[in-house]
BON domain-containing protein (Pandoraea cepalis), 255 residues
Amino acid sequence: MNFQRVVKPLAAAALIAATLAGCAPIILGGAATGALVATDRRSVGAQTEDREIQIKAEANTANNLPDAAHVNVTVFNRRVLLTGEVPNDASKQRAVEIVKQISNVRGIVDELAIGPASSFGSRSNDAWITSKVKANLINTKEISANVFKVVTERGDVYLLGLVSEEEGRIAANVTSRIDGVQKVIKLYEYIKPEEAQRLSTEASKNPAPVTDDSSAATVTTTPIDTETVTAKPLSSPAPISDAPIKPGPSNKTGN
């Protein structure tokens, strides 16, 4: 019996189940969704705000889009990545408009595809790819895997994080060589190497508590400019591409 053939579907299914259930990050490969990470270069406040934006976006898209829509929301530093599938262009535009109405969102990357929702097999494969990407980043000594957020959709891998240009380049190159990866899309916010080191040091000294409290999130309606929305097509054959998010107005929260 081929051991890998048996283990791969089971591991992928476990990753999917954990993600759908909102569990804590899985060691050595699970995508960290919904939990605050101790070595994250974002502040605790920024991580909390990102989580609140994600909760609002997920709830609002689920309640206002057709049942056939399958929308994944990823938030990093108040920038929102939309992936998945919607039945038509109207639903695609509606999803973007819904996110634009959420307070403090400062940019959107719309990578929604028009078509039927992906199958369980496709999502399992994406989860398996994400696990391999995370494992390979962990095994790359030149970078810290904890500063990257990894999202996989239909074999395309999106990399997010507050990173130096060198860190971003290394992570993208490592990811592009992994079996099953169709394309790597860089959605980084670049910072200077010394700033990256400072933020990592501060994060390690002041670990953030792991939490997943959705009760504090409330829906607000502060729209952002249309110019903050980008929809960069996933072109081929280039294996690595940049998909920058245009800056939007700063919506400050009251303290």
